[in-house]
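tool=predict chain=A
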Amino acid sequence: MNASLEISSGQYSIAGVKPQNEDACGIHIPDEPLLTTKGIAIAIADGMSTSDAGKQASEACVKGFLSDYFSTPESWTVKTSAQKVLSALNRWLHSQGQREYGHAQGMVTTFSSIVFKSNTAYLFHVGDTRIYRLKEEHLKQLTHDHRIVLENNKSYLNRAMGIDLRLDIDVRTVPVENNDIFLLISDGVYEYVSDDTIKNHIQTNLSDLNKACKAIVDTAVTNNSDDNLSCQLVQIKHLPGENEKEFYQKLTKLPFPPPLEQGMILDGYKISRQLFSNKRTEVYLATDTDTGEKVVLKAPSVNYDDDPEYINQFLHEEWAGRRINNPHVLKVLKINRKRHALYYITEYIEGQTLRQWMDDNPRPSLAVVRELCNQIAKGLRAFHRMEMIHQDLKPENILIDDTGTVKIIDFGSTKIAGIEEITTPLKTNNLLGTINYTAPEYHIGGSGSNRSDIFSLGVIGYELITGELPFTRELSARSLRHAKYRSIKHFVPEVPAWVDKAVEKAVSINPDIRFDKLSEFIYALSNPDSSLINQDYIPLIKRNPVKVWQGVSFLLLALNIILVYLLSL
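tool=predict ok
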């Protein structure tokens, strides 16, 4: 059984009665692994007739999108990848139009595209090219024309690629099923062919979609179309929805390695000694026999050799690490030899974990805390730029080498946005991360974000300063509503109030209250912000004057009663 996405497609584009064809269309079906991680892309564009270079604009958009989309990181979502590519193309069109032709309509085109990934179609649309879906005998338009019609029946595009530096593009997702058919056409076609005729041509030529596209375009020509004509068709032949058994077989192409001992050689890596072992992972110091380089070999524990969820997580750990190149993130090395077992290789770091460092340095200065947090944040930003969330940041997963450089390790819990879009039969409901460092939203089944990593960094910062954890009780789904933040000043009175408030904001139970970006938290640790000094530091008379006067009134009443009592004696 084919576990990959499979389609049939066709397209046809002609100039019609016009001297040149200013339409452009194309489709790109990549090989694996991009077929799984990025999907299949199809695009159509119609250069604006009043534009000086509509043909160049439409061709640049289609070719540029179909090339550049597949060059974006595999960890990015379809939406992020497409929007960044289209924004860059739009800026280029606008600047070229201004430079070559001196006005905003120099290089302008409509654009519509579908990216098919896993079991979803992602639609991107600006202008008046159209996308339809034919499903169960019903042809439905999925896009909205960005065209304004005037009183004299004339119309003009109010949104297109290249008109303005700011790009406002419609984005939509549609679940797909086998045999769904998607149609992309320019206005030179749909204005001259009825929906019923389009549907009949498709159904008559299902075995040859190129022929179906030509039949639709020829009908528009017969009906006196006065524009360029383009038509594209895609039929979903097979969706990548393998069952759990097939998925497990795919994961276990490589066996688990046997227990490794000093002197043993696995695929050219000579084991020196075991560095770490628990019920889930075996970690060894090894030497590459080809280069003499010291490396770390990480292997899964045989306790999980029949657990597809664990194996999938282990494979994703290497996948994530290979895609991040940052001095504050442990480097996962490429293995150039054929692997005969499931493991991966990382750089070897001479140093200690942050937990060990904290044990040796129980009360570091604020300057040292800021520097450590800044380095950790730089590593986390490398994850976030790739649309990854570490999800298990804690002192045990941070190394400090002999030069004082901080490196984040262990990517087993990393959430990868682009991979999350790929449908698998695995259902993962386990709580990720480590109690007390895990963001509260995970405890109640919420989805993580970059603010979840900010929470974990905030807890680490708090612990570096105080040696304690920030809440009155251990965090869990039941205890969240009763957990209260303990001021840093309770343990270290000399710490400035604004530092305490910066950390308190970072570890807020409600993620909406936390800093939006890591840079904001790092800045707030070193720069006083009066807005963070909340009501705890505002005099009661300003915070709640009603309570103050109620208290004064009660006190005066009590004094009056006492006076009356004394006078009556």
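The chain has three domains: 6-241, 248-347, 351-536. The two ends are 102 Å apart (CA to CA).
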